[in-house]
Design brief:
- This protein is an alpha/beta fold.
- It folds into 3 domains: 160 residues, P-loop containing nucleotide triphosphate hydrolases (Rossmann fold, 3-Layer(aba) Sandwich), CATH 3.40.50.300; 38 residues; 124 residues, Zinc Finger, Delta Prime, domain 3.
- Helix content is 57%, strand content 8%.
- It is built from 16 helices and 5 strands.
- A 5-stranded parallel beta sheet has the order 2-3-4-1-5, sandwiched between helices.
- The radius of gyration is 24 Å and the shape is elongated.
- Its EC number is 2.7.7.7.
- GO terms for molecular function: 3'-5' exonuclease activity; DNA binding; DNA-directed DNA polymerase activity.
- One of its GO terms (biological process) is DNA-templated DNA replication.
């Protein structure tokens, strides 16, 4: 059965197969696209195709020893590098490039894949750049990134860019519904990831369902008065969203609620993130002006920017409630 990723990325697949068919394999590529669009899966497919012993119709046979070892990530001619912590460090890159200059255990092309390439620090990026300027032998580099603009322009210019398009939300929602997920939950999780497996896992987590409910209850509390909102932050929110990553996700979910309000107010034919709360959110749309909604959403975005600092997260949320209250008072 053909992978869902391959079906969603037909343009990318056609381009890679065509380059193989015409023997026009580049020495460096940048695969860029949102998280969950299948960049690593397709990079391994391409590696498999380039190393396959019996390719047929521009596709790997999937049964030769080479294909099987690529599938198990055990092929000596393929190296994958991931960030060490927050960055890809120069030491990693030096060791990585040294491996690529050694004689391979097997004949054929060497392929190296750099995951989250936007997280190379300046030293590691410059080390890679030097290698790209003077490619040696039968080698192909594939850089995977969610942020093309964060890649050095000098590296961009030496790579073929292949952009991955996310599947439509409606497609993802339908796929989740087929797995027994409610449309309301599917509409929410597909705003957080374009990867069907991640979305399904998230939709099935009781913890995430509790987070979602907590966010919507905070919207309700904020509509009542500032005291209710502050009390809710202290009594409930701070117990659910304890870590920085959790708080960041909570702020995203909160922002999406007010985006729904804006869409309802503007009578846009867009898919809601919280369709099960449309009645309440529509009441907010009738009550709040565009200026008020803009101020509230900017306050949430400001909190997201501040989250990276050392500010106490409960205090951050209390300050957000005060700032949102000011936004509600905008004329």
């Amino acid at each position: 059965m053909e992978s869902t990723t391959f079906i969603n990325q037909q343009i990318v697949m056609s381009r890679l197969k065509a380059s193989f068919e015409h023997n026009r394999i580049g020495h460096a590529y940048i695969f860029d696209g949102e998280r969950g669009t299948g960049k690593e899966e397709i990079s391994l497919f391409f590696a498999k195709l380039l190393l396959c012993q019996n390719p047929t119709q521009n596709a790997p046979c999937e049964t030769c020893s080479s294909c099987l070892r690529v599938a198990s990530r055990n092929h000596p001619n393929i190296t994958i590098i991931y960030p060490d912590g927050q960055t890809i460090k120069k030491g990693q890159m030096d060791e990585f490039l040294l491996e690529m200059t050694k004689k391979g255990y097997e004949s054929g092309r060497k392929i190296y894949i750099i995951s989250q390439a936007e997280r190379m620090n300046s030293a590691s990026a410059n080390a890679l750049l030097k290698y790209l300027e003077e490619p040696e032998g039968n080698v192909t580099a594939i850089l995977l990134t969610e942020s093309y603009q964060a890649i050095l322009p000098t590296i961009q210019s030496r790579c073929q860019r292949i952009s991955f398009l996310p599947p439509s939300r409606e497609t993802l929602i339908s796929m989740l519904e087929e797995q027994g997920i409610t449309r309301s939950m599917a509409a929410t999780v597909t705003m957080l990831t374009a990867n069907i497996e991640e979305a399904l896992q998230l939709a099935q987590e009781d913890e995430f369902a509790h987070m979602r409910k907590t966010v919507l209850k905070l919207v309700e509390a904020s509509d009542q008065n500032i005291h209710e909102a502050l009390l809710y932050i202290q009594s409930t929110w701070s117990q659910v969203f304890k870590e920085r990553e959790e708080t960041d996700r909570g702020l995203d979910l909160l922002l999406y609620a007010y985006r729904d309000v804006v869409a309802l107010k503007a009578e846009l034919n867009s898919m809601s993130v919280y369709p099960d709360y449309n009645e309440f959110l529509n009441s907010l749309a009738m009550k709040l002006t565009y200026s008020q909604l803009s101020a509230v959403m900017e306050a949430i975005l400001q909190s997201k920017r501040q989250l990276g600092g050392n500010m106490n997260r409960t205090l951050l949320m209390e300050q957000l409630m005060l700032n949102m209250q000011e936004g509600f008072l905008v004329v």
